[in-house]
Fold each of these.
Amino acid sequence: MLFQNGLELKLVYFLIISAVLFCIGMYGVLTKRHLIHVLLSVELILNAVLINLVAFSSFTTPDKITGQMFAVFVIVVAACEVGVGLAIILSVYRKKRTVDINNVNILKW
Amino acid sequence: MAKTIWYIPLLPVAGFVAALLLGKRFGNIGARISTAIMGLCIPLSFYAAYLVFTEGPISIGMTWYITGNIKISMGMLADGLSSLMLVIVSIVSFLVHLYSIGYMHGDSRFWLFYAYLQLFSASMLGLVFADNYLQLYICWELVGLCSYLLIGFWYEKQAASDAAKKAFLVTRIGDIGMLIGLLLLFFNTGTLVFGDVFGAVSSGRISSGIVTAATILIFCGAMGKSAQFPFHVWLPDAMEGPTPVSALIHAATMVAAGVYLVGRSFPIFSQSPQTMLVVAIIGTFTAIFAATIAVVQTDIKKILAYSTISQLGYMMFALGIGAFAAGMFHLMTHAFFKALLFLGSGSVIHSTHTQEIAEMGGLSKKMPTTTWTFVVGALSLSGFPLLAGFWSKDEILGFAFENGRYIIFIVGAFTAFLTAFYMFRLIFTVFYGKPGQAGEHAHESPKSMTIPLVTLGILAAIAGYVGIPFLLPAKYSIANFISGGMNLPEIKFNIVPMIISIAVGLIGILLAYLMYGKKVVPRDWFYRYVKPYYKVLVNKYYMDNFNSIAIVRPTIKFANLINRFDKSIIDGFINLVGKVTVIISKGVHIFDSGVVDGLVNWTANETYNSGKRLRLLQTGNISGYTIVMFAVLAVYVVYLIIRIQF
């Protein structure tokens, strides 16, 4: 990759990207009807957080790689959480025969 | 030894208590024991008289009650007057007790009758025994109570209970006057003991106005008890009681209590000429008034009742004109022959079962003992020479004549004529002539009833001899005995009034014989010639009607008025208080249920409603939950940024 003069990589750019990804993910969680879609959006939020963490770590304290370590943990947690989430969605589907978020309102009063 | 005199009134008290306690088991034995008790009183009374005669008056007193500087004492006074009364009362009471064994035989409340008789005897003896006005008044009221109980003994009969009430109320009116008089005396002399009061009055410390007022008021009490006009109305009605009661109480003893009171108070009465005049006038008027009514009565007991009223009038006016000894002497003889007449009439009633003389007749053949004793009694009452009544009545009339009281003498003589007339009208109608419808089944009475009759007959004949002024030396005469220490005018022997009184008596007997015995003069000439007056007499001068309209009805109306006032105003006020309480409690209830309960209910409702609204938050809508989540997050981030910035 060639370094181009006058265009340095700043931290802000990475933060903006992570914020944008976070917002897209948030939009998805709030509006999508399909439970799998909601799950995908939650993954998107997690990835945005990853980017945020790594960016901060590499720009402020490149010696200590705390951010990268944290990121590994987050990936692991995300993976487990997807597994559990899918299990829940499956059981809900078996019960209710639908994955429309509007029909899953057993906790209604 | 003088202390044994105390037993005289106390023995009947014991008899009274015993009769009450034993009740139905009293029976005939108890009656005989009561009679024996009264029999015991006779020698005791004679003993008391003997002691007084030999040793002079006996007075035993004790202080009963002290308050401040007022001392009230109780005691016994035995002097000539009281021991004479003791003898009279105990003899007559004994004979009545004996008589009642036969007369009241089989009555359901036999024991109660004897209890009352004993109580009465005790009270009467206590009355004559007293040494002060207070004790006398207590016994006076007790005697009145016994009269009420005994008149109304057969209370199932409405007439009897009405008569008892009438007797009590009428005498009560007199008693009020007497009480005021006694209080007057007490407050002016500081004592009620006879001797002290008489001493205070005679020493001139008390103003004559007070003396007159007090004595007239005391005389009111005597008027009530001794049936003087206008308080005489109760005595004829009192004949509803059993005949022994009439004999004991309303002939011999209780009605004599009034005369005794005036006699006992003679020292203060004689200090007030106005009172003496009042006593004399009322006594004379009563005597002739009652005699005129007796002439037209048809009930045997009513004739005797009016005769009693008339003779009591005699005694009163005798005291009123100053013939103290003669008046008391007449009391004694009257007690004997009037009791005899009443017991005799009881014997007649017992065998013929009626009291109307028109239904009787010719009883002399069937009831000889009753007849001759009754005749002796009637002769004595009429003043037939040599019998007891003659001596006493003659003494009174003689005294009146001697002291220039000619009007009283004439009225008294005319009354004697009427007395003889109506008594012998009674005798000829009842005992002689053709037997009436009731006379068919008549029979002589049992011994328990005839023995008293004979005894009294003898007494009615000879008792007068103790009083004759000229037969015994002055020291032994009864006049001296009972006068005690008073200086009284001597009773002189005057032939003129004696002849007149004998004459009027004989004329009366003759007229009765002509009208009712031989029937020469038609029986109804009086009715035909003076018809309006006859009607007045038969209606007892309309006195009862007058009393009823003038006194009884207004009193009842007034009582009704007060009753309505009580019901409407006083009860209304209390009901008002009740209603207000109810209204207040209703108001409090509204407050309680409205405000307090409302508060509690509002709290509960609000809790419920807020819960109802809050649970709407639980939509179960996952999108909604996540929106809220992110919104709060966003707010927090903004907050953090702002915090860092500032």
Note: Chain B touches chain A through eleven residues (CB under 8 Å).
Amino acid sequence: MGEEITEPREILKRTRIEVMPYLREIAEHSRAIIPRMEISKRWMDYYEAVSKVRPLTASERRKLEEHRKAYDVLASRLEVYRAAGRYARTKKSEDLVALRQAQSRYYEAKATTLPPEKAREVREKMVPLKEAYDELAATESEIGEKCKRYKAVKYKSTFETALMEPLRREAELKRVGARIRDLYVRKHEITQNLKAFEMSDLLRSYGEVKGVGG
Amino acid sequence: MERLREWEADNLDVKVMHDLSPQQIKNGFTNGIDGFFLGTYWWVGKKWAYNFVRDIALKGGLKKAFGIPQSAIYIHGSDRILEDEKKTFIRPYLVALREAVCFNPDVIQVMDLPLDDRDDDNRVCEKLAINRDMVEDYHGWLVKNGFRSSNCYKDGLPKFSKFMLLGVCHGDYCDAYAEEAKFMMKKCEVLGVPVAGLLTHIKGLSKKQRYDYMFQVLTKVLDVIGNSRVLQLMGFGLSDIMEIPRLVKLAQKYDATVWIESSTLVRNSIHARKVLSFNIKNPNVVEYVNVAKVKGAEGFSPLDIFRQNDKVLKGLLTQTQLLSR
């Protein structure tokens, strides 16, 4: 058991030495994942060890966060490769589901590397238009009210409708019935006229994470 | 032994997908379950629909918003035609797909047109053609937006996809289901067979004959897809628990993964407050019994009942699977 190093400079020196073999490995194999994960892990350990000695500076905190995100992306990419290999060997449905879930996690990990404001903007653009929802909800609620009125007139369930004359009842039923019919037509029109969305904006926004879909 | 049981539970061929509402999801019904299904009818047409969809989208999906475990499979339903024709509501399917993407599910159900008893041959062909078109368009949209890769395996499935697609195979006779499955399996990871109609709408057949016909359909479909795709029984609500062994045996025969729904379990847990129990007088029968009649379950909340029933059902499935090996 060696003596525990508490000096930040010493911790940095030790971390650099530990990272070196992995850097050499990456120089040989540029697409290697595990050495990259090891490097991120070592740097995360370094920042955690330093944080016990002194508070981290803003740039150090940012770097720690970057290493964490990079580690998540690499780990999920490794999981995708493993799942893809397993599926290629077996071609079984459960391995297909596992592969898709791994790919989904990779996509999510990759998306977290976007700045929060940008991620929010991208997500918000995905939501369908508000007007469509509102107009539909208003029509639905009016249909509900009119149906209640129709039932009340037809089955004399309220005091006012119970005292109604037959001719007036007939006329009221016709009037409310016609309105309900119109509302259903309107509802159908709203649903069918919903524009899918402007693709150009979305495509531009998603261009940044599109590398994931490769 | 304990680890063996865990392994068996993880590798169950038959998984149970619960049909849950947003309220139930919020109340923690998703902990410890295999998966769940969420339909769009819970919010479409409501005043709070837009805010709900937007909130979920900004939080990065339903699972993140409600703290649902990653292991639970989330199936996002599509708009559907309700039985009452006046309540018909169908949006353009790409709008529904865009909304589905906001919820960030594991599986997206492709919108489909169900067949009707009154449909003639031409109408059936037309509807099946529309269903096929919709599957193609869903796939195309996802590829265009970078959620799926255009690079495909030999069997037609894309090499990368953020979402799985659930294609529904309709048909008016056994071979038609199989034919639809053959088409759907090129684009979809999960194939749905709408069995609810087979079990309820067929007139003049006994219950046994109805189940026989359903298993005939499933056999035909499994002959085509084998173990390469997941099979979902849509509307197999487990109203007859005693049919489980037949289903497990069929799944084992093809080494297939089958997902079943459990609307009866949810209904009995939450509304009727009944727990799955063995009958002491006849231990071969498992039935739902009111909590007041079960010792130790008197004070159970709906959530407790649901969890208890889910565990019992999984236990039954594991046991059936082990015994039939």
Note: Strands of chain B lie at 14-19, 35-38, 73-76, 107-109, 164-168, 190-194, 230-234, 258-261, 274-278, 286-290.
Amino acid sequence: MVSTALKAEAGRPGTPDRPRPIRRRPVRGRTLAFWLFVGPFLAGLVFFTFVPIGWSLWLSFFEAQNTVTPTEFVGLRNYTEMLADPEFRRSMLTFTVFAAFIIPVTTALSLALALLVNRVRFMQAFFRSAFFIPAACSYVVACMIWRLSIFNGVRFGLANTLLLHFDLDTVAWLQTTDPPLYWLVLITVRLWLQLGFYMILFLAARQRIPGQLYEAAYLDGASPGWQTFRHVTLPALRATTVAVVLLNLIAAYQAFDEFYNLMGNTAIVRPPLIYLYNTALGAEQDFGRGSAGALILSGLIVIVTLLQGKFLRLGKRED
Amino acid sequence: MRLSHQRLNRRRLLALGGLAAVGAATTACGSNTGRDGGDPNKVDLSQWYHQYGEAGTQDAATRYATEYPDANVSIQWIPGDYDAKLASGLLSEDGPDVFESHFNSQMATSGQVVPLDDIMADFKSDFSEIDLFENTWDGKVYGVKMIDDPQLFYYRKSMLTEAGLAVPTTFDELIAAADALTGKTVKGLYLGNTAGAGVLNRPLLWSAGQDLLTADNKIGFGGETTIAALAKFRTLHENGSLLLGAPTDWWDSAAFTQGLCAMQWCGMWHMPLIQEALGDDFGVFPMPPVFAPADGGRPSIVNGGWSTFVSAKSKNVEAAKAFVKWLWLEQVAHQEDWALSYGFHIPPRKSLAAKATKLQSGTAAETVALSQQYGIGANPAWTTTMNTALNDLVTKVVREGADATAELATATGKIDDELAKAGG
Amino acid sequence: MAGAVMPTGARRPRRRPAESGPVGHRHGVRARVVTVAVYGVLGVSAILFLIPYYLLIRNGLSTDAEITSPEWTFFPTDLRWENVTELFADTETHFASSLLNSVLVAVLQTTGVLLICSLAGYGLARIPYRHANKIFYAVVVSLMIPGAVTFVPSFLMVSTMGWVSDLRGLIIPGLFSGFTTFLFRQYFLDFPRELEEAARVDGLGYWGAYWRIVFPNSLNFFAAIAAITFLHGWNAFLWPLVIGQSNESWTVQVALSSLLTAQTIRIHELFIGAAISILPLVLVFLFLQRYLVQGVTQSGIKG
């Protein structure tokens, strides 16, 4: 939806069809009115988005450790250092893998929940609320529950209580690296927080599909279940699916909260934003390399988004 | 807390004003470093502490600050990642004037802190060599040591006795003991939630007979010795005898006192709490030698602690220095209170340590004696970047089983770069 | 997309029987089996989804000794409501001031965003101006920039202005949401022109028409955007973490996170604090779900 709207806008030259002015008034008056409406926003956008990015670009060409007014120009050194740093590369790679896993899982499960909730009549509001309410929770609160009460490594965590009940050994969920059990914790917390949100998107889209489409499918001999899902539901939800995947992708690369609160700054699993946070705002305070890294990451996100848009044929419209 | 409320109110008014004046945002940068509620004729100073785990410490720090006659001192008490918060705070306009931290040369070379030689002059001889060395760079003293904190192993006497074990005297024995003490709901050893990667890095190298840096500031570790020491550490990790995932980390004694583990690496600061919870049922021992003494193996103890500094960004450097001199050099009673009334810390002043009766009996006395014999302090030439490199090395080799030779090369490469930067 | 009426209301939507498939006599048994299975899956999932809330309340009303005991207690027999007063009395948590900060940040940010972005959206949608297209493209470009990646330069900016540890630094940079402006513009493009014609008859300018006609007739959309903006303001973490460096400028999320990684922790205090912190939003979710759902479906990208 979002993406289709974006695409539709970007593809429409000379947006929008010039509206007729409300009242005949001189051009200068209209200009004044325009700036009255748009001016404050535009000033803020320039000041808090474009200027910082420009400054960041400038800093990325300087040796700027512990200072924001650097004097030593170093050319592309910050970029080459970041790209050569195996830790930074590893964080980017880890998160490409993370994204490749979390995106399909979130999309599939939220779609499944939406279709299930859509099917039932009795207690539908209850189920919808039960799945949606975690979206009210912050990552911090969820991580606290996960870390201290469900997946802590000692005998009084919920997961370990269950294991002990079945006479199994306790497990250090967040600290075990082989196999990397911490992914279970990181992924379940994200699913709990996000599934309901995407479910709502799918549910709304599903309820917009006209019933006649299904009736027509049954007349054509399609049996309920897989066949109608495959040939009616899925195509009709295409645009929503694209939007959900896109949102997921952006969210995955910007993962920070749960890693910060569950894992801290550990070399084991360090998403790009944690790495940048530590480089620029942590003990290192290197704004040159931090800025360079942020720009590299932005570039990567834009490229992946575009590729993914191409792959999913972003242009198809829902309605 | 009335003080902070008034300050808040003013901030909120400023915020609202700022919101209204959003178009003129650039010009709306009012200063809000003023701390209303204090004497308007005195300068305002902000003093930062990390959050101490011992009850009563925050109140004590606030009490000292209010007693200071020559400035309005406000306290920031910071839980969580203190190093990160401090680093960014020091850059911002709202940073501390006076703060506690651990010194490294970069703080001096990048001009974050000011030398304190003038206020230290009369007191220097009362500090130990170790404490002076760790706060000195290029012949100037930058920090005043507030407390000395030995870090070492605690063990439950009853659990070792029950298992028929003696106190470990080598790293191999420690590995075996941790293994033997591990049961269904009790683990042998707690080294914190990173499985000791981080906190045990330095003791491991020291007890293997090496060091972070040599006396002439070259890399002091590497080669077969380091690789073999890391391999032993890896064995300890692989045995499944380490407690992991407790709610608090190694610096808190909760896991030890709750009976989740038989041995734990911790600081002397929690000894009063441990005594209260376990009575006489605990003892201490240093990091045991990793190799035989003939191969350089030796016991070691981390001589940690905190020092206090004056930020170069402070608008009142002289006032901040005067406050540091007052609190951490002249007010002997406060220093004694700080070191002994809440947790246990060794007072860095020789004159004070000599009369610290609470540390002159039992396990506390034993710990003090061990730290005098085996304690090793921090090296100011060791920077945060180097520390991150070492941390990554130990994490990857010990916890993830990566190839030690390759990772060692990566780490030493980074440290060499950093040393070259500092040298050039 | 904007303006579409979302059927997922708080009330159960009307459904056509055919949507569930042709439930004829022959399919009766099978359909019943499927229905039971669907309820089974939904029931188990719902229980799993509700467990964290159970833990939040259980731990929040227990003592630490009960929480860390080797034996699992399903629910404390003595509900320790005094944990709430203990939390607010604990000077190290700064809970009361953090809660107040969160309220201020979420409320002021929501108000500011609604005002600034709706005006801009209206201007871009309705007022003809030579450079309007260029400005609109700048907005679209700002959408392409991954939000969280700009936190380093934004921090430098805010820090230079001395807004670190200051509510201004927490609130103001978040007021100029390109995405919300984009949404408002889309919405106003679809706004019925006839209504504005009436304003013309009354001789109102753009400003008058906006406040007298357009705004009062768009309250649903404003409510939807308000709900989602408030949600994000309340739950934001990275930016308040970067900006809120002094204890007095913590938001409740930063306070909880700091306590989670503190030297020593009092588990029951953390949990009761977390429970209090999510209470306003849970209430919003339960009672204003319709607007939220609308907000979510219309502005999903902010998640």
Note: Residues 199 and 208 of chain C are 8 Å apart (CA to CA).
